[in-house]
Design goal:
With 425 residues, this protein is mainly alpha-helical. It contains 18 helices and no strands.
Length: 425
């Protein structure tokens, strides 16, 4: 056993760049990574603490030796092309201030994707654990904030519950979807753990579901439903026994019960809840009215057809009379142009292809991939009805999908190498 572990360590140093391994072994780095993710829900401030920490990590870790994995060169090329196309489109913008703000965010999320992908590949088990712990903390803080806000225990300067529950976000339609990946994370944990830890995680899980439904975001509910469907499929495919499948059904049933209780409590005891009964309809007047969501999407399609370069980052609301396209796939095309859209679409296609092709692997990282890919599918479907281009957690999920699959492949190569060395001996 010692021989095998020694060979594994030696070969891992060969598969990973040694300098990258060295910097990621620093004792302070997991603490800093946890803090960076843990404050990711505090985004009502600008610049957000999370963004400052991400950029600090980017400009600190890469010069110190964190390496870009060779396996992400292709998606990195598409993202660089996406960024370059947006820079070109920025030349056509009519509002410099709005353009610079949107363009800077767009470039920032690309750096964030590169950071998280490179960091997780360097030591997937360690940094995935740290990042999920940080994400869980951020989500629980967001829900606690939202609950206090909803029932009027916070001042109006921190958000008015009657309008929408936003938590520490600026928009309820970002607050609620942000919680979905962590809901799946705790669902997965409840399928695998026993004892007091199970009860503790179940309480956190129900609290998160409660917060998700308090957001009264139709898009978030769709996100959750689509992601849950994929999570169930992935879990069923990889289930080892009938007992495991039964436990999965119990956890899914708990989601349904929590949803019903949340809606009942929220609607029954607050004035805001009564208002949201009316707003929870599948289609609202502002969706179908002239100048509304769907009308703007038609206008965006026309603009895309006649403007290959794009109207420039941040220009949608200006060109379409204050309304965004509410569709990420139209948003990237109308603002960044045809090249930006094509590169983004190809990036998504290869990301999903890579994730689905490894979803039933025997790797210890399989659960992480299933959680991440289920959550990513939920966001991408919701993005048919919302501009999620600048969502931090979308780019985190995209980075994690690549990092986990690269780590799975490297671990498989490592195992083959060890088997080869053992056979030679």
């Amino acid at each position: 056993m010692n021989y095998v572990n020694g060979e594994r360590h030696r070969l891992m140093l060969g598969l990973n760049h040694s300098s990258s391994v060295t910097i990621t072994q620093a004792g302070w780095l997991p603490v800093l990574v946890w803090l960076t993710v843990a404050v990711s829900s505090i985004v009502f401030l600008e610049p957000a603490p999370h963004d400052i920490l991400v950029l600090s990590l980017v400009f600190f870790l890469f010069p110190l030796g964190l390496k870009v994995p060779r396996e992400i060169n292709v998606p990195l090329f598409f993202l660089m092309l996406f960024g370059a196309a947006n820079l070109l489109a920025a030349l056509t913008a009519t509002d410099t201030g709005a353009m610079l703000r949107s363009l800077s965010i767009r470039i920032y999320v690309l750096f964030a994707w590169l950071l998280w992908a490179s960091l997780v590949v360097a030591d997937a088990p360690k940094f995935l654990r740290v990042m999920w712990n940080g994400y869980s903390f951020a989500a629980l803080v967001a829900v606690a904030w939202g609950v206090l806000q909803y029932f009027g225990f916070l001042p109006d300067t921190l958000g008015k519950s009657f309008d929408r529950v936003t938590g520490p976000f600026k928009d309820a339609n970002v607050f609620a979807p942000f919680l979905v990946p962590v809901v799946f994370y705790y669902m997965d944990r409840m399928l695998r753990i026993r004892g007091p830890s199970l009860a503790f995680d179940a309480c956190k899980f129900l609290f998160l579901v409660y917060g998700l439904f308090l957001g009264f975001s139709r898009g978030a509910w769709l996100n959750m439903s689509i992601g849950l469907m994929f999570f169930i499929i992935f879990s069923m495919i990889s289930a080892r026994s009938l007992k495991h499948r039964l436990r999965l059904m119990i956890v899914v049933a708990a989601v349904g019960v929590a949803a019903v209780l949340t809606l009942y409590l929220a609607i029954s005891y607050t004035e805001a809840g009564q208002l949201f009964v009316q707003r929870a309809a599948l289609v609202q007047e502002y969706d179908v009215a002239a100048g509304g969501r769907f009308d703007t999407q038609v206008k965006a399609l026309v603009e895309i057809g006649r403007n290959p370069i794009g109207i420039g980052p941040g220009m949608s609301a200006i060109v379409f009379d204050g309304v965004e396209p509410h569709n990420i796939y139209l948003h990237v095309a109308v603002e960044g142009g045809w090249i930006a859209a094509l590169s983004f679409y190809l990036f998504l296609i290869i990301t999903l292809s890579r994730g689905f092709s490894r979803i039933n692997t025997t790797s210890a990282l399989r659960n992480n991939l299933q959680i991440t890919l289920a959550a990513l599918m939920g966001v991408l479907v919701q993005s048919l009805f919302i501009d999620s281009t600048h969502w931090r957690h979308l780019w985190l999920l995209l980075a994690m999908t690549w990092a986990i699959t690269v780590a799975i492949d490297r671990d498989a190569d490592l195992t083959k190498s060890i088997d080869y060395v053992q056979n030679r001996r």
